């Protein structure tokens, strides 16, 4: 029985350092203390699969299979038909025998039963309770409340399995098909009768199907042959070849149970003759082997059995094939180690040799290694262990988590080699590796890691260690540091310092409206990056946009957090000031002029006023331009935009003084009154001052005549409000009232008739009465309100006229008129578009045309009398237009048709609407496209060939003669022309732009097609194709672009002046500066390009300066002046104790940067691993260097006091074993007691005879950790990101 000593991290630390002696720890003296035995100190662990362990017991509490949780209460419902009910008396339902039976079943089973009577007098039963109770109850209900027929059918016992089918599928299908219950006796039941329960018809069907299955199986034979299991391998043959040959020869199917199944029965199925032949052959083989074979038994270790069996039993089959001997292995779960070989006597010897060879071909070895070293042994991405497995591919190496062992399995020689290599790796790692563990609160873990692992990666790189921080899900605060012993201690100290700093941090919440978050962060986070760079010690957290939170959290040192908060508050104040918004109404036709060519005007206004200006989209009906920014800037931008509008049109702006108290009443409910005035006066804009401003000024802007008209109406309305005691005398007509019975008519069609075509009806009422009539807009919620505003007498008169108009709508009449059949199609085509327009315009009048083919000219109109008359008049006008229509043909080459139509046919649609004509294009003739004559350019026919119109070139225009001529002229104006523009070949690529952006922009801006010749042709011509006006604009734009490019070429020539100067390479880093700061400033100040030599260049001293000649000369002088200053500088070395370097440098180099800025010097510390670790180089002017060195020496002296004090304390705290068992601490005399005895146990294995106790002071038995550098390990947080 083996035992394992468990060593915890604490006891391991004690073991390495040695136990503290009696005086330091205050322990009981050794001679007085109880000394435990080895077994008491290190109790053995139970062995795996120890004797006495029950085979059925699970390996652990977690090994048992978890049972699925089922509902404790279930409900089942089933139906009993009337004919199957045992008690059919419904007169006492719920009180008769059925109720008594159910009550009895409920008492006996504990289930709850509910009965109900269906319409067909059948019985519905619902059973509720625990599963077993429900099952018992249902069984008794079927037995006591339901009557059923049953029958039996007898078929041979061996046919039963064919009735059941695979996994019972055949039986289920049969029960479903016949609606019966079929009970088949169990295999151990000698009965051959199958019982069928159900309806008579179902029983007959099931009986017939079962007999058919049996009859089919009667034709086949099945033989079961019981032979000793030990002889099955001889019958099957090696790799089952013998039994397969036998099956092919006889045609019978032979089934031999596998070795793992403890069955002796061999089943033979097939035709009777084939089965008989196979049976005789198998018996012959069995009798022969039974007579000739004998057995021998051998003992082989259980662990070697799997190598004898081989993968999938292949090794056993190979032995059987080679020697004809069967090897019988004990079950793997048994403790037996006996193997039986069965075969002919002369062949047992070779078979035994092969068994032993296979058993010894593989060995298993365990190598002891601390669990924390496993990943270092494996190496980064498995490099170390990969080298071993590549050299020795047949060796399997297994590492077990948490265990201090490594398992090796494979051929003996290779395992021994792998073992030696792994032990060598372990020995090397133990010499140069160490680890320590630090408890750090989990809330600090993510800050220790830093953004994208920046902090933790820096520590790993700087100290050459591996730091393992547990995942959040582990809820552990244990941080483990592994690597070089010195680096481990330094990394531990820095982590503790970081935690101490974080514990002193402060968190502050700022309330910032979420709408400003995106602006503060900036595009791609560039603005918030500037804030973070300004306050690097402050962490700024914005809430997730989905949280709708206004809280921005700042965390860091108190003073830095306060500064950052003030800085952010200032930014927020500026944002609030710049978020003022102003809306300016500008007539839609002037928007493009405000934008300007290529957005020049709007861009200039935005830049000069520092505002954001948003214009509505082209498809929008809105005329409002929104300006955002500071209030004063917004007003300046508004004035400039209005000035553009005044320049472009005869726009007048006037102010009217109206008392502020009347403004609300003049605006009306939801702006209906002022909106009606604006619509009546040609769309003028009326602007009232904001509520609460106290201003009486109302601004009216628009065309001159309309502004005066609106001013007059507004003043009249205001006078009326002032004259009356009440602000308005308003009558509201409800369309659903008794006066206006409109509830049965569609509101919109009724309103259109009241308004009249082009507003004629309502204008007549307004002119006669002087009252203002306001209809609801589509956006109003009250669609059934008509408002009349004006003097009392005028309002009453307008009311009467509207009532009379509405009253006429109640007189529904039916009339007819004659319309020539040839015009019918015009009215009913396009899904009756013309008829729908008539109905909308004339109060919902219904116009009915006769069916196609009826050959009738009579058209029926039904609706209000006035509406019908107006609709008849309109139909007559349309007919007159149709009869006066002519068709005009226009010949335009087919290749121009697409351009004339425009995008989605917009140009043609515009012409048809404007000129009230119909335009029809011919069918496209693709075959003729290649035979077209020379193109028509500039409106002239090519002299080479005259244009001959074809059918596919003829466009037909239908309408009034004068309208057709106008439309024809408009079409011809749309025919594109092509003009050449002289542009030098060298400028073509600049005109095209990057990826064609320049040429695309011009084509979109001028709505033309610009063709640039292929580069290989080197032509100086660019062709512009499009409408005449657009081509002219494009030519001008192209020539302006050429002038700009030529100016740029001249400028480039001036900027190409170059000067080369020689500067000693040792000064190059100083000229470049920290992160290129110095050279960038020179480039910026003098607007030049400065190139330094590459590393591989021959002339490392040459610096090239290019730019304008004057600027280049100034830059050269600046560099020469800088070099002169550098030449005056000196470098001096000073030796500072390396233990003080970290404190002099400070956190993130903050202290040393401050010192360099103060003394105007450059200080360089030695790299890790340098030959002179204490040499520090100071560079600068002589006097500043001396001052800096004096300051550094003072700092060294100050810091060394602290270092000496720390080391003295550490010497007392550290045990002697750290120094090889040397001098003590805490006042213990070196000569008094020698090294500590350590932890003592009795009856230890090394105290046994022949064993020697380990020497605690021996460097060979207990080697000290070296200072080797640990190999870089893969980070737990993923690869480093730079």
UniProtKB/TrEMBL annotation:
Biased composition (Polar residues): 928-939
Localization (cell): Cytoplasm; Nucleus
GO function term, MF aspect, one: mRNA binding
Annotated GO biological process: cholesterol metabolic process; lipid transport
This protein's UniProt keywords: Acetylation, Cholesterol metabolism, Coiled coil, Cytoplasm, HDL, Lipid metabolism, Lipid transport, Nucleus, Phosphoprotein, Repeat, RNA-binding, Steroid metabolism, Sterol metabolism, Transport
Signal peptide interval: none
Coiled coil: 788-815, 1105-1132
Amino-acid biosynthesis among keywords: no
Start and end residues of each K Homology domain: 147-215, 219-287, 292-360, 361-427, 432-500, 504-573, 578-646, 650-719, 736-807, 811-880, 884-976, 977-1043, 1055-1124, 1128-1197
Annotated segments matching region Disordered: 922-943, 1250-1282
GO-annotated cellular components: cytoplasm; high-density lipoprotein particle; nucleus
Function (record text): Appears to play a role in cell sterol metabolism. It may function to protect cells from over-accumulation of cholesterol.
Record's protein name: Vigilin
Protein species of origin: Amphiprion ocellaris (Clown anemonefish)
Taxonomic placement: Eukaryota, Metazoa, Chordata, Craniata, Vertebrata
């Amino acid at each position: 029985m083996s035992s394992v000593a468990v060593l915890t991290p604490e006891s391991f630390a004690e073991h390495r350092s040695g136990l503290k002696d009696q005086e330091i720890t205050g322990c009981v003296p050794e001679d007085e203390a109880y000394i435990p035995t080895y077994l008491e100190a290190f109790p053995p662990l139970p062995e795996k699969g120890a004797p006495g362990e029950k085979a059925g017991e699970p390996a652990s509490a977690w090994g048992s299979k978890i049972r699925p949780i089922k509902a404790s209460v279930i409900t089942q419902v089933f139906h009993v038909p009337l004919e199957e009910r045992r008690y059919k008396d419904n007169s006492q339902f719920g009180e008769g025998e059925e109720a008594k039976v159910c009550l009895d079943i409920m008492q006996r089973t504990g289930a709850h039963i509910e009965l109900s009577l269906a319409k067909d007098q059948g019985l519905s039963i619902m059973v509720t309770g625990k599963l077993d109770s429900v099952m018992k109850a249902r069984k008794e209900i079927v037995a006591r409340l339901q009557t059923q027929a049953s029958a039996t059918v007898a078929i041979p016992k061996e046919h039963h399995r064919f009735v059941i089918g695979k996994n019972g599928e055949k039986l289920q299908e049969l029960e479903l098909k016949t609606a019966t219950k079929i009970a088949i006796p169990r295999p151990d039941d000698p009965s051959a009768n199958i019982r069928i329960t159900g309806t008579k018809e179902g029983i007959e069907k099931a009986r017939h199907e079962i007999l058919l299955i049996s009859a089919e199986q009667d034709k086949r034979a099945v033989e079961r042959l019981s032979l000793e299991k030990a002889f099955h391998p001889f019958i099957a043959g090696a790799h089952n070849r013998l039994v397969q040959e036998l099956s092919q020869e006889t045609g019978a199917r032979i089934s031999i149970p596998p070795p793992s199944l403890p069955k002796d029965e061999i089943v033979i199925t097939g035709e009777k003759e084939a089965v008989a032949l196979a049976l005789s052959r198998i018996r012959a083989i069995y009798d022969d082997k039974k007579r000739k074979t004998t057995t021998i038994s051998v003992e082989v270790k259980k662990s070697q059995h799997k190598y004898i069996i081989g993968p999938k039993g292949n090794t056993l089959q190979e032995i059987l094939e080679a020697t004809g001997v069967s090897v019988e292995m004990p079950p793997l779960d048994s403790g037996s180690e006996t193997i039986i070989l069965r075969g002919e006597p002369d062949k047992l010897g070779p078979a035994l040799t092969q068994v032993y060879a296979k058993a010894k071909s593989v060995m298993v070895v365990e190598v002891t290694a601390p669990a924390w070293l496993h990943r270092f042994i494996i190496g980064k991405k498995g490099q170390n262990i990969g080298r071993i497995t590549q050299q020795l591919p047949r060796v399997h190496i297994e590492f077990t988590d948490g265990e201090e062992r490594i398992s090796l399995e494979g051929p003996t020689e290779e395992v021994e080699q792998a073992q030696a290599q792994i032990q060598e790796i372990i020995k090397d790692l133990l010499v140069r590796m160490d680890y320590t563990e630090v408890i750090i609160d989990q809330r600090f873990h993510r800050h220790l890691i830093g953004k994208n692992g920046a902090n933790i990666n820096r520590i790993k790189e700087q100290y050459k260690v591996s730091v393992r921080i547990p995942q959040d899900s582990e809820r552990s605060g244990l941080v483990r540091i592994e690597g070089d012993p010195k680096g481990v201690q330094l990394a531990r100290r820095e982590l503790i310092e970081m935690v101490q700093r974080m514990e002193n941090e402060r968190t502050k919440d700022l309330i910032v409206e979420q709408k400003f978050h995106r602006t503060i962060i900036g595009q791609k986070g560039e603005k918030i990056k500037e804030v973070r760079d300004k306050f690097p010690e402050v962490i700024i957290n914005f809430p997730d946009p989905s949280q709708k939170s206004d809280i921005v959290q700042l965390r860091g040192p108190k003073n830095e957090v306060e500064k950052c908060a003030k800085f952010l508050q200032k930014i927020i104040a500026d944002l609030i000031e710049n978020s003022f918004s102003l809306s300016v109404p500008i007539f839609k036709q002037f928007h493009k002029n405000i934008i300007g060519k290529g957005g020049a005007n709007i861009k200039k206004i935005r830049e000069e006023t520092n505002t954001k200006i948003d214009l509505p989209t082209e498809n929008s009906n809105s005329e409002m331009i929104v300006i955002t920014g500071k209030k004063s800037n917004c007003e300046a931008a508004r004035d400039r935009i209005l000035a553009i509008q005044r320049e472009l049109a005869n726009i007048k702006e006037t102010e009217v003084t109206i008392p502020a108290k009347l403004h609300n009443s003049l605006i009306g409910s939801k702006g209906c009154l002022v909106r009606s005035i604006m619509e009546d006066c040609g769309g003028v804009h009326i602007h009232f001052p904001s509520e609460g401003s106290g201003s009486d000024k109302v601004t009216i802007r628009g065309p001159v005549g309309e502004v005066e008209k609106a001013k007059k109406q507004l003043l009249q309305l205001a006078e009326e409000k002032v004259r009356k005691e009440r602000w308005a005398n308003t009558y509201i007509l409800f369309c659903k009232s008794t006066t206006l019975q409109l509830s049965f008519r569609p509101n919109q069609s009724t309103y259109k008739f009241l308004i009249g075509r082009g507003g004629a009806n309502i204008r007549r009422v307004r002119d006669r009465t002087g009252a203002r009539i306001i209809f609801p807009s589509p956006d109003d919620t009250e669609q059934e309100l008509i408002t009349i505003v004006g003097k009392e007498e005028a309002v009453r008169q307008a009311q009467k006229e509207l009532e009379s108009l509405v009253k006429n709508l109640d007189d529904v009449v039916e009339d007819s008129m004659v319309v020539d059949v040839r015009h019918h199609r015009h009215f009913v085509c396009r899904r009756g578009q013309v008829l729908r327009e008539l109905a909308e315009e004339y109060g919902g009048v219904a116009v009915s045309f006769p069916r196609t083919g009826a050959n009738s000219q009579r058209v029926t109109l039904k609706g209000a009398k006035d509406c019908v008359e107006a609709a008849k008049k309109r139909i007559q006008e349309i007919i007159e237009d149709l009869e006066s229509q002519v068709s005009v043909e226009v010949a335009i080459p087919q290749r121009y048709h697409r351009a004339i139509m425009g995008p989605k046919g917009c140009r043609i649609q515009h012409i048809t609407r404007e000129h009230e004509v119909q335009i029809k294009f011919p069918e496209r003739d693709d075959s003729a496209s290649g035979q077209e004559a020379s193109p028509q350019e500039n409106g002239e026919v090519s002299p080479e060939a005259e244009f001959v119109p074809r059918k596919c070139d003829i466009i037909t225009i239908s309408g009034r003669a004068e309208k057709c001529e106008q439309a024809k002229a408009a079409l011809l104006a749309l025919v594109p022309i092509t003009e050449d523009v002289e542009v030098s070949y060298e400028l073509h690529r600049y005109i095209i732009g990057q990826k064609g952006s320049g040429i695309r922009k011009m084509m979109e801006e001028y709505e033309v097609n610009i063709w640039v010749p292929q580069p290989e042709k080197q032509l100086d011509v660019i062709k512009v194709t499009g409408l005449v006006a657009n081509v002219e604009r494009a030519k001008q734009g192209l020539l302006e672009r050429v002038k700009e490019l030529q100016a740029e070429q001249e400028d480039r020539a001036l900027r190409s002046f170059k000067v080369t100067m020689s500067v000693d390479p040792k000064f190059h880093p100083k000229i470049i500066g920290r992160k290129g700061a110095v050279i960038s400033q020179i480039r910026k100040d003098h607007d030049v390009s400065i190139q330094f030599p590459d590393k591989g260049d021959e002339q490392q001293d040459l610096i090239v300066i290019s730019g304008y000649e004057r600027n280049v000369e100034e830059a050269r002088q600046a560099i020469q002046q800088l070099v002169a200053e550098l030449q005056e500088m000196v470098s001096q070395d000073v030796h500072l104790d390396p233990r003080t370097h970290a404190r002099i440098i400070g956190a993130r180099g903050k202290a040393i940067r401050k010192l360099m800025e103060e003394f105007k010097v450059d200080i360089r510390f030695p790299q890790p691993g340098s030959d002179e670790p204490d040499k520090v180089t100071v560079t600068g002017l002589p006097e500043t260097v001396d001052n800096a060195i004096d300051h550094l020496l003072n700092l060294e002296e100050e810091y060394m006091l602290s270092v000496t004090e720390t080391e003295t304390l550490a010497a007392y705290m550290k045990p002697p074993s750290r120094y090889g068992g040397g001098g003590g601490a805490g006042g213990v005399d070196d000569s008094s007691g020698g090294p500590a005895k350590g932890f003592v146990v009795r009856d230890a294995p090394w105290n046994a005879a022949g064993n020697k106790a380990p020497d605690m002071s021996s460097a060979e038995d207990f080697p000290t950790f070296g200072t080797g550098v640990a190999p870089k390990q893969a980070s737990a947080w993923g690869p480093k990101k730079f």
